[in-house]
Amino acid sequence: MLENAQNLLKKYYGYSTFRDGQKKVIQSILEGKDTFAIMPTGAGKSICYQIPALLLPGLTLVISPLISLMKDQVDSLQNNGIPATFINSSLKTSEVQDRLRKAQDGFYKLLYVAPERLESQQFCHILNSLEISLLAVDEAHCVSQWGHDFRPSYRFISTMLNQIPVRPIVSAFTATATEEVKEDVVGLLKLTNPNVYVTGFDRPNLSFAVIKAGNKNDFILNYIEDRTGQSGIIYAATRKEVDRLYENLRGKGYRIGKYHAGLSDNDRKKTQEAFLYDDDNIIVATNAFGMGIDKSNVRYVIHNNIPKNMEAYYQEAGRAGRDGEPSECLLLFAAQDIHVQKFLIEQSVLSPQRKVEQYKKLQAMIDYCHTPRCLRKYILEYFGEKNVFENCGNCSTCNDDSDLSDITIEAQKIFSCVYRMNQRWGTALVAQVLKGSRNKKVLENGFDQLSTHGIMQGYTIKEVRDMINILIAEEYLGLTDGQFPVVRLREKAGAVLKNEEKVFQKIQKRKEKVATDNSLFEILRSLRKEISMREQVPPYIVFQDSSLREMCEYFPIDEASMLTIKGVGEAKLNKYGEEFINVIRNYVEENGLMDRVSASYDNTKNSSKDKTPSHLITLKLYQTNNLLENIARIRDIKLKTVQEHLIQCSCEGLDVNLDVLIPEEHEAFILKVIDEIGGQKLKPIKEALPKEIDYIAIKAVLCKYKNVNSSS
Ligand code: ADP
Ligand code: ZN
Questions:
Q1: What angle do CA 40, 42, 44 make, to 5 degrees?
Q2: pTM value surpassing 0.85
Q3: What is the 8-class DSSP label of residue 197?
Q4: To test the ligand 1 pocket, which listed residue (47, 231, 298) has its Cβ within 8 A of the most ligand atoms?
Q5: How far apart, in whole angstroms, are the C-alpha atoms of residue 484 and residue 466?
Q6: Where are any strands of DSSP class E within 455-568?
Q7: What is the largest CA-CA distance in the chain?
Q8: Ion ligand 2, residues whose Cβ is below 5 A away
């Protein structure tokens, strides 16, 4: 049965394999069991009921709480060639009737409805005339008062189930896993002996960072400058802060929208659409933004201010990378932001007891910002996961390979300059004076006469500003509030000026930037945009970023190779294949890349499932000091596969130290056995050795000494 499912996955979605969690859930549904799946955002819940929908004889009824998501999902299904539709309050009565009639004629495999529909007797009556094989309750936590978005209409689901003549298989999906919610879902939806599957909370493709930026504006500008064309969300704590950030960034020419509860419905809607359709890359918003946003290619989420608790943080940050592509979640920490959150709790109408709870949750959020441990570990343990690894290899703690350098003298120079400028100016001007600028403002104020003018000539303006920002983050300097923040000395600076305390700066070791050529990606992106406008669907529904990336890697210039691209199923091949193939072929011809095409094409043909030169990706991760376990997690592959990859790399002559795979105490022994019985076949070697020595070690030894021999 699963083999069939796998074929459909390729045919309709263009994916080669199910993720671990998906397989179990689909199997369970296909066995006719009620099934409850708790999986984090981006884990791929939709496919868990959509594939069974294709395999079961009748209709799959999907209860979905958000009108915008419904339309998105249905657009996406239709685009993959799967007959699906939705019914909600956005439609005219005649449209509803039309769709219901077609459903009765067996026209659709999936029908999405809003829960409120179930309150209508008339609608439930019509359901009786449909052959419903599967009920899928999306966002099932909405049935629970304990969840964050209780929807009373969800209670009508069990009423409806009681009324229809043949009870379908019932499946429920959510990302919320607290005990109360779990019990409510099983109880209130009246699931019968359900199989319950909980996959971990981890989102391996997201990296987490807490940054003490000092000057956040500078930080954000720097950050987005490197990411033109990528989609990102910047969350700020208050409307005022959103307005300020928005003005600041827009002034720099970025395509950007803003969103908060103070704007009109119409404005908010426009902003949201522009973001979905990639017209605006960046959105600055309060936490009012996000509910119902299914945009899959959000590459980063920056929190300009600390949010109220970890639940809110993980939900908001989790809007990055729903397509599984590497994405970044950054939290810019500043101690003064905590006051805003405390103020909000104080002002709220909560009971004193609830306030205490909120303070506790806020404290856990603050602790996250200060923890010296792995951030992902902190998050997962906060949400109750057990036996979490020590280091994830993909957060700002785990990746911190910075050296410390002593900047006491520089700090002293900066402090005295701030002091001599009477503590009335912003970072920019202070830096200019230190650098020795003679611009108008400097001269007008006579700052060129100061003894500190030009005493940091040896640095670039940016380096000076970075140092000032560090001194702000470390609370030697302070910034006043308001639109034009002024730098002031703080108490801590005194000890440094008196030579009683030293100041250090972390120097990030320069990561070698892999030079990537994005020109084809940009060409494909604009083609995608063109199609998106033509067909009135968001670009990510045409193709996800990950599909475009694979096209850039493999240059598919015919239909067969196009079909091997992740996310290209038969329907999309028919609809868009030709246009993309033409553009890629042109690009390849113009840039003389034909030899690369045949190389990657051979590769694709040889292994039908996974066409990525996967071992090279593994090697890349390994070279940035990742533990093998972490690479396995980040890439969602088995540890053994990671080990095999390294061996493969080494055998291909790449520089990999295989000693990590060979237990030192066994190496000589393995070599001896190979010496005795030869290295042609693995099995006899394995059998001649003690059980605890595994194949990996043997292969690694074989490869290690083969390379030594051949290079000597
Ligand atoms: P969720 O509802 O759990 O947040 P989605 O169903 O929206 O997640 O899926 C998240 C993303 O993962 C989508 O872009 C989807 O196309 C992709 N996806 C799902 N299953 C697979 C798979 N087996 N292989 C590759 N990508 C997948
Ligand atoms: Zn980590």
A1: 95
A2: no
A3: E
A4: 47
A5: 18
A6: 477-479, 487-489, 504-507
A7: 91
A8: 374, 376, 392, 395, 398
